[in-house]
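Study the following:
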Amino acid sequence: MDAAAVEALAPDAASVAAARKLARPAPWSETGFNARAVWGSCRGSGARPYEVAVDLDGPAYRCSCPSRKIPCKHALALLLLRADGAVAEGSPPARVTEWLDGRARRVPREPGEPIRDPEAAARRAAEREARVAGGVEDLRLWLRDAVRGGLGAPRLRGWDEWDAFAARMVDAQAPGAASRLRSLGNVAAMRPDDWPERLLSGMAMLHLLCEAYARETEGPLRDEVRTLLGWNASREEVLSGPRVQDEWSVLARVVIEQERLRVQRTWLWGHDHERAALILDFAPTGGSLAPRPPAGRSFEAALAFYPGATPLRALLEEPGRLRDAPGFFGVGGVEAALGACAGAVAANPWLDEHPIALARAVADVDVVSAEDGSLPLRGPMRARWRLLALSGGRPVSVFGMWNGEALNPLAVGDGERTVAL
């Protein structure tokens, strides 16, 4: 199992980042592996190290840490160590042998057939559904009480109130809701000029998310709701779905430094299907991000998109031969772009921004204009001046992120080349 396959097992991106930090020999002892399992002990904050074991036939995981995530960061880190060749082959200790024998008795199998434990998997899934449902109901009531008490109430001004309820959502295995709560807590505590509007709007969208989950929506919207709450489709699930074959131009790559995490966003444009795609990569602070084709290049590939009401994020297994990207992309003008954004928001009202690709537009520092209208620009002045310089007053292709008020330009095509801003 290589590192990519290990990371695909993670329940969320935070687990991957935490596991990468632990995937070094220093905190580990008594490690080993055989054809059936990997095991070891990881030094943590307590007096006794955590005892970790992974049944490779499942895979199934066992760890003495208190984490409710399956697999936890310790199990993922142990598998990453094994993938790096830092675990020596050996004989399992008694505790691991007893655990493996117990699993074999509970799950009969034919010789050579991989162990599967559908009952345990179904039980874990049901337990998580129950925890999330309880947490979502608590959040819905908390939001209603907060609005009834007024946005200016002293209890909402302190960070502790928001952080405490965010921790409740983490315990309920709904980390997506926890992240939104902490963002709103920053608004409530910092009180920027437009804080009442931002706070009320954010709380309303969070309440809408609770209602959508409680109503058990079906189809793509259900996938979107569950993703927003913190469920993640596994890499295998995504790759087993339909693929979109196209020539993909690399428009831009943006790296964002978050708390203890680096996020790399690589934006692609499919010329035949006239659609954008987003490749996401994660690494701990100071860690190395996955290499991706540079902006201004293109390749043939079949992308697998994550399910959802507005599928943008995709997986790229292996790009085809790289060549220079065409100097153009996009479809239509402002009216078509805003219509596509409106359709996306109608399908997924929690969208904060959506990609726009104008086929022919004239750029200025503060506005970009097509034959049927114009859009205000925002974002770094350096990117906007660069857009103006590259266009030279001529119609160009422009790609960026629209937040409902302004466009943040990320790439331009001048007819001969595609350039990231």
